[in-house]
Specification:
By secondary structure, this protein is mainly alpha-helical. Helix content is 40%, strand content 5%.
Length: 124
Amino acid sequence: MGFIIICWIVMGVLCALIALAKRRSGLGWFLLGCLFGPLALLFAAAMSAAPRQSCLPADPQKTCPYCAETVKMQAVVCKHCGQRLGNVIENNPSQDQWNRELEKLPQQKGRRWGSSPQPDKESD
């Protein structure tokens, strides 16, 4: 009786090894091999390999730091706001990158909504 149980566990291990070699679930095929024995081993040997998944998305995009719209990764100029992107942005820019880019922007005069009022400087 113990020999039969060891044989079924060995078949489960063989199924798992075959499945891992074909980029399939090793644990799932181990359980199937333990439950169905030689039949699962036969199916594991006959199955095809899982297709490889590409690391890059089909249409890689990045976010414009000026208008927050998405543009293609190869874009040099944002199609929405017209700002030059260059090599400024990544998919997740750090706070330092944002601060450096904001310092480069020209300072706009005038009041913004939500800002504290500043007295106008008038020349005498």
